[in-house]
Specification:
It is a single chain. With 249 residues, the chain is an alpha+beta fold. The chain folds into 2 domains: 130 residues, Roll (SH3 type barrels); 110 residues, Nucleotidyltransferase, domain 5 (2-Layer Sandwich). It is built from 5 helices and 11 strands. It has a 7-stranded antiparallel beta sheet with strand order 1-2-7-3-4-5-6.
Length: 249
C-alpha cells in the first residue's frame, strides 16, 4: 500500500490518503474501513443532462466527480479487484445531494482518503502491515539464477510482497563474466540487507537452479564477516539453501 499522506492522532481522529497497488492492498483496505468511517475518492455517476431526447425525456451523462461517503456497507470483490463502499454523501456537490446514497468503487491505483474518528491499535497495526510488508513477514525467499534475483516476503496474510529484479547480462558484458557476476551478487546482497529483517523473519531461503545459490550464499557470508553485517552473522543458521528448476516465479 502506498501511503500518500497521514494526518491522525493515535487513539484519536484523523485521516490517511493511500493508493492500493495490488489486490492484497485492497484486502487490507477492506479490513481498515469500518461502518461509521468516511471515505473520499474520485468516482463516476450518471446525471440528467439538459439535452432532450425524442419522447420528451432528458438524456443522461456519466460525470466524473469527487465524493465523500459516510460508510454503511463495505464489500470486497476479489475477482474484480475492487472495493465497494456504500454510504451517504457528505461532500457538497452540484450533481449529488448531501445525504444521497452512493457506492464508491476503489480499484487499483485509485487514491482514496479514509477518515476515522478513532484510530485504535488494531487499525494502526493493519495500516502498518499494509504499508510495510516486512512488518508481518515470517519467511524471506531469495529466488535467483545468473542475472536474475528476486526477493519475496511471505507473511501471515501476504504473498510476494517485494521484488528486486536484476536483468540478465547480454552481449559484451559476457566477456567480463566474473565482474558481472560479482556486481550481480552485490545487488542481491544490498536488497537482502534492505528487505530481510531477522527480528521479524524466522527463516530466509536462498533458492536457484545449479550452483548460483551456493555461490551467492558464500558471497553473502564472506561480505557479512568483512563489513561486518551483524544481523547476517548472528542469523546464518536461519539461512537455508534450496534447489529449484528456475529462478522465475
Amino acid at each position: 500500500m502506498k501511503i500518500v499522506r497521514r494526518d491522525f492522532v493515535r487513539d484519536g481522529p484523523g485521516s490517511v490518503k493511500m493508493v492500493a497497488e495490488d489486490s492484497d492492498d485492497l484486502w487490507y483496505a477492506y479490513n481498515l474501513v469500518s461502518t461509521g468511517d468516511s471515505v473520499m475518492a474520485v468516482t463516476f455517476r450518471y446525471t440528467l443532462s439538459f439535452h432532450h431526447v425524442p419522447g420528451g425525456g432528458r438524456d443522461s451523462e456519466r460525470v466524473r466527480l469527487k465524493l465523500e461517503v459516510h460508510v454503511e456497507e463495505v464489500d470486497y470483490d476479489k475477482d474484480a479487484s475492487v472495493l465497494r463502499i456504500r454510504g451517504k454523501n457528505i461532500l457538497e456537490n452540484e450533481h449529488v445531494k448531501i445525504g444521497a446514497f452512493h457506492t464508491l468503487e476503489i480499484d487499483l491505483k485509485r487514491p482514496f482518503v479514509l477518515r476515522k474518528a478513532f484510530w485504535d491499535s488494531l487499525a494502526l497495526d493493519t495500516l502498518k502491515q499494509a504499508s510495510d510488508p516486512a512488518a508481518s513477514s515470517d519467511l524471506a525467499v531469495v529466488l535467483m539464477q545468473e542475472g536474475l534475483g528476486q526477493i519475496f516476503l511471505v507473511g501471515r496474510s501476504s504473498r510476494a510482497r517485494i521484488e528486486t529484479s536484476i536483468p540478465r547480462k547480454h552481449g559484451p558484458a559476457i566477456a567480463g563474466y566474473e565482474s558481472a557476476l560479482k556486481k550481480f551478487f552485490e545487488n542481491v546482497l544490498q536488497a537482502f540487507v534492505k528487505h530481510v529483517d531477522f527480528s521479524v523473519v524466522r527463516c530466509a531461503v536462498i533458492a536457484s537452479p545449479g550452483f548460483t545459490k551456493d555461490q551467492f550464499h558464500r558471497h553473502l557470508l564472506l561480505e557479512a564477516e568483512r563489513r561486518p553485517l551483524r544481523a547476517i552473522i548472528e542469523n546464518k543458521s536461519r539461512i537455508i539453501l534450496v534447489h529449484t528448476n528456475s529462478g522465475y516465479r
